[in-house]
Predict the 3D structure of the following.
Amino acid sequence: MKRNSLGFMIYIIIGIIVASNRGYLVALGSIENLISAALAVVLWPLLLLGVNLHLGL
């Protein structure tokens, strides 16, 4: 159980780092930016593949 929690925590930390490096955590003033940032943190492997998760609503 603790191994899963540690793995999840590491996954999220890597996601935060990758999302920050790709500019998703810069301006979080709107709901679109917050959703984009959350998606970028969770789906960070897609960012490494070049997928753009910025929402343009």
User: Anything to note?
Assistant: The longest helix spans residues 2-21. The helical segments are 2-21, 31-42, 44-48. The two ends are 39 Å apart (CA to CA).
